[in-house]
Write a structure and sequence with these properties.
This protein has one domain. α1 (about 5-35) runs antiparallel to α2 (about 40-70) and α2 packs antiparallel against α3. It is globular and about 50 Å long. It has helices at about 5-35, 40-70, 80-100, 105-115, 115-135, 140-145, 145-150, 155-170, 175-190, 190-200. The chain is built from 10 helices and no strands. The two termini are about 35 Å apart. About 80% of the residues lie in helices and about 0% in strands. It is an all-alpha fold and about 200 residues long. The structure holds protoporphyrin IX containing FE (HEM). Protoporphyrin IX containing FE binds near residues 86, 90 and 165.
Length: about 200
């Protein structure tokens, strides 16, 4: 049986999260600046930030079941910082797209959202992640009352939108997106009791 984590351990874990999320992102653009990303640097940065955002997002969904399993309620405090990094990576992902693929032509960007289904669902995912990030501050959380939880239940819709975005964005290699879909389904299955309560 693990002894209960104290505030200091949580701060240490948060520091590790900051380092392991911030350094790879910084190093990515460092290598891009020095032209060290291989033959197709644009594809590389879009792929890296997209997969990074998805991995971190899924990690944020692991926190609650893990806290329950280990009986370490304090771990829940990590959800916010992990979720904010998922949002940060997503923003860089979309900025890469805006900068390299559409050169900040917003009309072209909007037409892409309407014409390409994989961009449409990606936008839905980003929109939800933005709302979750903006409402993650404790003052806003308090002022929203029970509406906060209702809004944050949209995390699961974001997850579904993001894995569909990944699946639709690949042309042939379907194994990787399918693995991510299975992981998301497993993480949702762990929450089946919560979903059952909604539909009662
Ligand atoms: C408006 C919003 C978004 C746009 C415009 C966008 C754009 C793109 C593009 C252009 C690709 C590469 C497709 C290709 O290889 O041809 C891609 C792939 C991907 N995106 Fe997004 N995306 C958006 C939102 C998101 C969000 C919110 C996430 C995750 C949180 C995400 C995760 C991914 C992943 C995992 C891939 C696959 C990476 C790969 O294997 O190349 N995207 N996205």
């Amino acid at each position: 049986m693990l002894s209960a984590l104290n505030g200091r351990s949580i701060t240490l874990i948060k520091l590790c999260i900051h380092l392991s999320c911030f350094i790879p992102l910084f190093y990515l653009y460092w290598r891009a600046y020095y032209d060290e990303l291989g033959a197709d640097p644009v594809e590389y940065v879009i792929h890296y930030t997209g997969i990074g955002a998805l991995n971190i997002f899924l990690l944020s969904l692991v926190v609650s079941p893990l806290a329950k399993f280990l009986k370490q309620g304090k771990l829940i405090q990590l959800r916010r910082v992990i979720g904010l990094y998922a949002f940060t990576y997503s923003v860089f992902h979309v900025l890469n797209f805006l900068f390299f693929e559409v050169q900040f032509d917003f009309l072209l960007f909007i037409s892409e959202i309407f014409e390409r289904p994989y961009i449409t669902v990606g936008m839905i995912g980003l929109f939800i992640l933005t709302l979750l990030a903006l409402t993650s501050f404790s003052r806003i959380k308090r002022s929203m009352g029970s509406r906060w939880q209702t809004l944050h239940n949209f995390t699961y819709i974001a997850g579904i939108a993001i894995v569909i975005h990944f699946y639709w964005s690949v042309k042939s290699e379907l194994v990787e997106p399918v693995i991510y879909i299975v992981i998301l389904v497993l993480l949702l299955v762990l929450r089946k009791d919560r979903f059952k309560r909604w539909f009662k």
